[in-house]
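---------- Forwarded message ----------

FYI, see the DUF3846 domain-containing protein record below. Original note from H. follows.
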Amino acid sequence: MITVLIKRPHEEAEPVAIAGADELSELVGGDYDVVRDDRLPGFSLIVNEEARGVEANNFPVTTDGYLDWVYGTCVFVKEDGTSLTEEDVETVRRYLAAKS
């Protein structure tokens, strides 16, 4: 089990323990893509690109200097595949608060 942080549109981010990658598909509602934000090094954002334009915007990201939006549910994971620590959770929460 590893701890990840799930962020749904219009809701606070919450830590969740998952057993593996199959659960990521369930959390984001289908096939997922991995996105990174230049301002959140060491983390990956798991998103469902099929939610683009269908589900509400969640928050903006900047990847390689280009602004884009995360649509639908987003799951934050560590790039190295390890569990998020309490400090990591707070880092992501501060990141999300700065996006508001």
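H. also flagged this: The radius of gyration is 12 Å.
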